Amino acid sequence: MKFCKHGVCPRRMITDKLKSYGTVKRKLGLSVRHLPHKGLNNRAENSHLPLRKRERIMQKFRSPGGCQRFVSVFSAVRNLFVPPAADANALTRHIHRLQAFAQWRAATILAA
Q1: DSSP assignment of 42-92, as one string?
Q2: Measuring CA to CA, which residue among 59, 81, 82 is closest to residue 71?
Q3: Full-prediction pTM beyond 0.90?
């Protein structure tokens, strides 16, 4: 049995050192190599860091719904102001920020 949902079958399974992963692998009949290692899955874990940081900040909300409403608006606004990673020099970042503030002013004037 192969689990190739995206067209490419995985060659290895990298997990932490929890013993139950090997049991699950055997029960599913996976034929991939299992590498239980503490640091090899850092790439996957690091991709979640911005979300984890926001979750930690949001612990002060009274309800998950209030947190979700804030995060959905905050993400959209943040994406407006944070320049793309390709903007390497200070001038392009400055121009991006000026354009973002102009768009923000136009949006808030229209909303008011």
Answers
A1: HHHHHTTHHHHHHHHHGGGSSSHHHHHHHHHHHHHHHHHHSPPTT--SHHH
A2: 59
A3: no
